[in-house]
Amino acid sequence: MSAHSHHINALDDAAWDSPWRRRRVGEKVLCSMGLVLTALLTPVWPGTVLVAVAAVCFIIGSARIGPRVLAEAMTGPAIFLVLGGVSVLFSVGQSPTDAWWSLGALSIGPTSAAQALRLFLHGMAGTLAVMVLATTTPMVDLLTWLRRFRIPEPLLEIANLTYRLLFVLLDTMLTVMEAQRCRLGDNPVGPMRGLRRRWENTAAAIGAIGVLAWERAGRLNEGMSHRGFETTLATLPVRRTASPGFIVTTVVVIAAIWAISWGVSAL
Amino acid sequence: MHIAEGVLPPVQCAIWYAAAAPFVVHGAYRIVKEVRERPENKLLLATAGACTFLLSSIKLPSVTGSSSHPTGTGVGAILFKPPVMAFMGLIVLIFQALLLAHGGITTLGANTFSMAIAGPWIGYWVYLLTKKLHGPNALAIFLCMALSDLATYCVTSLQLAFAFPDASSGVLGAAAKFLGVFAVSQIPLAIMEGFLGILLFRFLVKVAAPQLAGLGLDLVPGGRAADPASDATAKEGSHA
């Protein structure tokens, strides 16, 4: 839990403190999604590798996000990609004639190796490209920006409230779990290392958090309706000036990756 | 477990978006209608989303000392019904992609289909079927939670198999591989999540019977409402 809460806060704090916070959301979406699509559509070499390098340069260089924050955020996806890559690396069934290695029904050959490498590199490059947006744009900015696409107001409102409640509930959850730990509720002693007691405590903690959240939401709703909150809780968007230099840089970087990829493919 | 960004080919990303869209649109329509009719439920729905997000952050204890994470979709399916979970699941997945780097934007359709549609619907159908056959509440909750979890991972494995067919045995071989690596390892987790669900609802029946009744749930034995004394005892118990 603590690792997850640390990740949530780390990425959110990075987004709020980033110098890119003052940039227009649309420009950052253009940069991030342009890189995501490039990572998805260009060949592994050199396209996705260049996307990964460009994304890291944008995040650590221009947006000045700490390398440690980025490394911690990338640990989870990297584990998934390694597991997925290993699964793809081994073929099951009759060994292909060009297999490099085989044992019973398992084999590794050039086709499966290329597929595994493609999965891992596309995944790493794509995730790093999403991190360009995640580490520089707070969720509130993104939801405010989405209003222009005529998404029904109640849906954006619920997304906004969910985001805000997340941190309130996170604090509640940490308090409840800390209280249990202080009472040695998670102490692995007794039969089966106290498994039954620890399970009952976990269920009680989840239930308590749910009930407390429910009651708090009810009270908050009552208070807000007394203040006239009936339809939306709109926040004033921060006016940001366009940065043509940033747009040009984004387009040039993406175009260069495509040009190099085509050039290498043509050789 | 979500499919990471960039892993699925573009055509399959589009197909999974198209497959998830009707369910999400239906869920969004239900939520808009619900909020317009009863604006007071807006905060409760947001709380449900935040709770689902946080539930997937709680480590489950295990004998070895290692831990796993529940998906939380089974609880949502029982409490709020699957259509609402389809849209709330989408929001949770977007937050997980941007706040935890789990999942992605191009794989959002595929992840929504597995975690917010297939899991809750399959779990909820089994829950209803068990109730219809007059099965005990505990069994219905266990099956709903466990099968929601298991269905999510099975669908994720199939999605990956379609994207990366095995070099020798094609899509079927790849499905067997991914099911072996991901889904079979999830069986213990699904069973644990099922037991957790029983304990969780037992706790909720003690302390939040009126809220459960308000959601149209018939889980209180004999229809009795929770008394304040048991409320206090249960809340104290949560800090044990």
Automatic annotation (TrEMBL), chain A:
The keyword Transcription does not apply. The chain crosses the membrane at residues 43-61, 73-93, 128-146, 245-264. One of its GO terms (biological process) is cobalt ion transport. Pfam families: CbiQ. InterPro entries: ABC/ECF_trnsptr_transmembrane, Cobalt_transport_CbiQ, ECF_CbiQ. GO terms for cellular component: ATP-binding cassette (ABC) transporter complex. Keywords: Cell membrane, Membrane, Transmembrane, Transmembrane helix. It is a multi-pass membrane protein. PANTHER family: COBALT TRANSPORT PROTEIN CBIQ. This is ABC/ECF transporter, transmembrane component. It comes from Propionibacterium ruminifibrarum.
From TrEMBL, chain B:
Pathway: Cofactor biosynthesis; adenosylcobalamin biosynthesis. Its main location: membrane. Signal peptide: none annotated. Keywords: Cell membrane, Cobalamin biosynthesis, Cobalt, Cobalt transport, Ion transport, Membrane, Transmembrane, Transmembrane helix, Transport. InterPro entries: CbiM, CbiM/NikMN. GO terms for biological process: cobalamin biosynthetic process. It is a multi-pass membrane protein. Part of the energy-coupling factor (ECF) transporter complex CbiMNOQ involved in cobalt import. Forms an energy-coupling factor (ECF) transporter complex composed of an ATP-binding protein (A component, CbiO), a transmembrane protein (T component, CbiQ) and 2 possible substrate-capture proteins (S components, CbiM and CbiN) of unknown stoichimetry. HAMAP family: CbiM. This is Cobalt transport protein CbiM. It comes from Propionibacterium ruminifibrarum. The gene is cbiM.
